[in-house]
Amino acid sequence: MNKGELVDKIAEKADIPKKTAEAVLTAAIESIMESVADGEKVTLVGFGTFEPRQRQEREGRNPKTGETMTIPASTVPAFSAGKVFKDSVAG
Fold it and tell me: Looking at the DSSP assignment, which residues form a beta bridge with residue 44?
């Protein structure tokens, strides 16, 4: 499912125009991204948690040359599915 299909599904389930559904979805995604970028944790009960995670500096290899290189430390976004979400996917 892509964003357009998700907008269609939201519009259908909420019985709202597609334009409104797209605006709401875009605002929600942007808000989550901004919060996580600011170092905050975003928890949607039953769905999951978005949070920034720290990656340590580590050693890697250049795939072309096989040469060892240092991969710098960084902050990356992470998602952990909630129990209700996990249970619904598991069956």
Answer: 48
